[in-house]
Amino acid sequence: MVSLSNHERTDDLVLGIDVGGTKILSAVIDPEGNKVSEYLTATRASEGFEEVLKSIVESGFGALVKAGKGFSEVRATGLAVAGLIDAKDGIVRASPNLPGWRNVPLRDRVEAAFGNRVFLINDAHAAAAGEHYFGAGRGCRDFVYITVSTGIGGGLILNNELYEGANGFGGEVGHMVIDDKGPLCNCGNRGCWEMLASGKALEREALRLIESGSNTTIPLFCHPDPEQSEGEGSQSHPIKCITAKAIHAAALAGDPLAVELIQRTGYYLGVGLSNIINIFNPELIVIGGGLSNIGDMLFKPAIEEAHRRAFKQSFDLVKFTLAELGAYSGVIGAAAYARQQLGRPKE
């Protein structure tokens, strides 16, 4: 475990970098968790590791330039990446956002480019650390951070410590099996939580029902990719462009199928939450990610189902809240993690 107590506060700046599937966000962070500067660039994941590495360097350098600093003027870099992250050895074992990445020594390559110490961390772990230090989890000793977006990720703060697991792979709550006969997940299992309660799951079910002939206005709220060529999905009802945002918009307009789809997603979200509550007995569950923007339409059925399934004593204790740091939780948490790790000898 990584202790999150007695967080050393100095005047030193730290660079945080959050590597997503499409974008890389870098920010220079002060000891109070404030952004001194930020820089956003494209990941270019489809172009391979070397191009992604160039994007990481570009993003980090861009944030430093905007802050008027050089790499020698920041104490360290925290680097957050989705997937199975071996933080100890600095290796990305696998990442759902970075096709073809297997056992990539990312920390060492970024250290060589930056010339300062780099600390690699899973992106959901980083977000949990960010919310613990500076967001919704401040002052809370036991809480679970869950990001509900395209997939589902998690970070655990247990007894005031970030729990990373024996080899850094802890907290993969999105791959908790909810229905062993459910949809096939990229991990190889069926019915993982993220295959039933994520944005991807919501969109998949909407598309399935529309293609089977269900009556709905959801396609009217879809906006095709403007770069899509003529004839590719340029129909008046672009069902191939269905997004969670479009489904939510249709639900707000009173579309019965859209409402049902969101409530069903909320149901499965609640099934998973009940497992989290029963296993960890947290005092707080912090929920972030793009799907959380749906709000009560999603969370009301989720909390009701969690209430129905969880141990009463544990459910009565737990509180639910939305993440406070939004899109910055990962980059701020990565910087906080790097700052905390500076006191440890390099292995």
From TrEMBL:
<dbReference type="InterPro" id="IPR049874">
    <property type="entry name" value="ROK_cs"/>
</dbReference>
<dbReference type="InterPro" id="IPR000600">
    <property type="entry name" value="ROK"/>
</dbReference>
<protein>
    <submittedName>
        <fullName>ROK family protein</fullName>
    </submittedName>
</protein>
<dbReference type="InterPro" id="IPR043129">
    <property type="entry name" value="ATPase_NBD"/>
</dbReference>
<comment type="similarity">
    <text>Belongs to the ROK (NagC/XylR) family.</text>
</comment>
<dbReference type="Pfam" id="PF00480">
    <property type="entry name" value="ROK"/>
</dbReference>
